[in-house]
Fold this sequence. Notes:
Layout (H helix, E strand, L loop, with lengths): L5 H10 L2 H11 L4 H8 L3 H9 L7 H14 L4 H9 L28 E5 L1 H5 L6 H9 L3 E9 L21 E2 L4 E6 L7 E2 H10 L4 H11 L11 E7 L3
Antiparallel strand pairs: 1-6, 2-4, 2-5, 2-6, 3-4
Helix pairs in contact: 2-5, 3-4, 3-6, 5-6, 8-9, 9-10
Amino acid sequence: MPPRSRSRRRRRQSELNEAAQLADRLQQAGFTKRDIARIIDRDPSLVSQFYTKNKGAAFVTALREVLTAVETAGITDLPELAAIAARHTHRRTTASGARARVRTKALLITPTGSGTGRVAAQAIASGSARLRPLIAEAARQGLRLAFTVRLAKTAYVHPSGSRADSPGIRRDVIQRTDHTEERSYGSAQTGGFDAADFARRVDAAAGDVTAAVHQWLVETGRIHPDAQIIHLEVRTWRPR
Length: 240
C-alpha cells in the first residue's frame, strides 16, 4: 500500500473537530492523550472521543488557553496547565442550576458493600481510571478491598503458591497458556486491605490506580520493579 500523501493527511486534519485539532497540537508539543486528560481533569477515554465521536466542544476554550501557555510562555508543568484549563472548564448543570452528575459507566457498590471493577490492557495503560471511583467510594463507606493482578510468570518474585506471596489465601494461582499468572491479594477471610489506605495511595499517584497497585506490589517484595500489570480486578466488601 503506498504511503498517504500530504494532501490526504491535510484532509484528515481538516475533518477533525477543533478539540481534536488542539489535542493534536498539544501532542506535537510533547504531551500524551493521558497528559491532556489530566490537564482538563477528565478520563483519557474522553480525549480519544474527540477523534472518534466528535466530542470535546466544551473544552475548546480551555485547550486553546493551554496551548497558548505552552507555545508562548513555555509552560509544561501539568498542574500549572491544569489550573489554567480549570478557569475555562465548567461541569454541566441541571435545569435548576445544580451541578450535573458525570455520565460514566456505573461501578456500583451494593448495600452489603460488595463491588467489583475490572480493567484490562488498554485501560491499565491509561492508569485504570475507571477503578478510581470504586476505590474512592469504598474508602468513603469504610469498606475493605482485595485485588487480583495478572502478570508474566517471571514478573513475580515468589514462586506460585508461596505463602510469602499471599499468605492465607486459599485460592489456586491461575496459570495462563501465554505464560502469565493471576494472583489474588486480600480476601474476606484474611481481612483484606483498608480501602481508605488504598484511596490515599491512588491520590498520591495522581489518580493512577495501576501505579498505586504496582508500587504496593514492589514495596512488599511481590513483583520486580520492571514488571507490567496486564489485568487488574478490585473487589470490596463491608467488614463484619
